[in-house]
């Protein structure tokens, strides 16, 4: 009997139910498998890096044809591979609005309100993560932050990704900068992007990937760590992991000792940490943040990176020199851009005023050294931004963003701007004094608030540093101390929370420095590399 649209064929009731169920299930699975999908970084309101080819990519059924149209004109086709991935390379767009992008397969995706501009990855730990709502004058700034050409994207982990392997996608959504969208976004990144937009006039995309309390090795590809045997980072991290895992035992022993002393002296017992078992949640995972948050966005072109991290690595500050350099080169390799600009936020002052050198001083030196020696890097000096200095998370993020933007304008945009305060150029010792030469003096050297400069120290052959008097003489400073008749070394602001009172007349602080290369605190503790060799 011939089949027609109105066939009178009859099936048993049970067979009909099975057929109906199979049709529904097959339809559901067929639809799911057929959907063309894009990474989260591609969405309405996104910013594409201007004047750079666009790697439009996604997933589709194996063999499924994907057609890309821009403004109604076909721009490329691809087919889903065996792994379901596909990609189409589009020509770069000039700064400004991008025509509607339509991706068609068995379903259709339309990208609207897309801009071409400069995309900056803003990454690091808690001081990069701190929201505008928590920053100094942040709520007032957020209330007027109506910047439709600045777009915000926060990178989140996709599902329950373990971070053991490099991911291909993340979770996130683009939003135009508005009072509502920016208040919970990074304050440092916002001020950075706002100032860049003001200076360049082009759209700015800020891609935030930051997690508090994380060391740099979590942000570095495993292959990069393994490729540098002198770092021996895996052994170091395992040692640190075991210490952190068992910290509740160390803490409780210390508490018991203090409590016993208090009872003997008739004082109240000190407060006990209510949840010491939290330490047991520490996970010994290298590269997980790189795998989950950075690798998924590397196929997309960006202008540069704004990096604010280092607090968690301070106890291994000497090791941070090769580690940060390795992180930078590995990210550049992932983005296939050897000259990818990196703006490094130098750690601010921290802890009560201390003139004794500590691990934070040594980590700042590591950051400065990398910025100086690795091409296409710049340093934003923040040594005066923590008020009070005991605050691990300084609320002054306006100066952080401002100084990072100046560094970016100089390095990434080749602008002729005064991008930093005075930096050490050399020292000569004669007649019981040190003559210090500087670069980046801008309109000249000056003391903060017109006061005398007190942040200098001198040492003789005994390597004991003493406070010294400093006198500005044009573009140089002469330093003397009655306690050091024959100086051989000079330092400025080389401590965890030093005196910072030298600026250029452009209002930017002098970078901490030392003329000597004597072993620093973490180098002396055997941290030249983690094995202590």
Mean pLDDT: 87
Rounded to an integer in angstroms, the radius of gyration calculated over CA atoms is: 28 Å
The number of helical segments is: 13
Q: Classify the secondary structure makeup into a structural class.
A: alpha+beta
Q: Label the overall shape.
A: globular
Q: Beta-sheet strand percentage?
A: 15-25%
- Main sheet: strands, sense, barrel: 9 strands, mixed
Instruction: Give a count of the beta strands, DSSP E runs of length 2 or more.
Output: 25
Helix content: 25-40%
**In terms of per-residue confidence, which ranges show pLDDT below 50 for 5 or more consecutive residues?**
1-32, 278-282, 528-533
- N/C terminus separation: 88 Å
Short description:
The longest helix has 22 residues, at 13-34. With 533 residues, the protein is of the alpha+beta class.
Tell me about this structure.
The chain is α+β, with helices and mostly antiparallel strands and 533 residues long. Among the domains are: 31-113, Immunoglobulins (Immunoglobulin-like, Sandwich); 236-281, no CATH class; 423-524. 27% of the residues lie in helices and 23% in strands. Strands 1, 6, 9, 10, 11, 12, 13, 14 and 15 form a nine-stranded mixed β-sheet that branches. A four-stranded antiparallel β-sheet has the order 4-3-7-8, with no helix packed on it. The radius of gyration is 28 Å and the shape is globular. The model is unreliable at 1-32, 278-282 and 528-533 (pLDDT under 50).
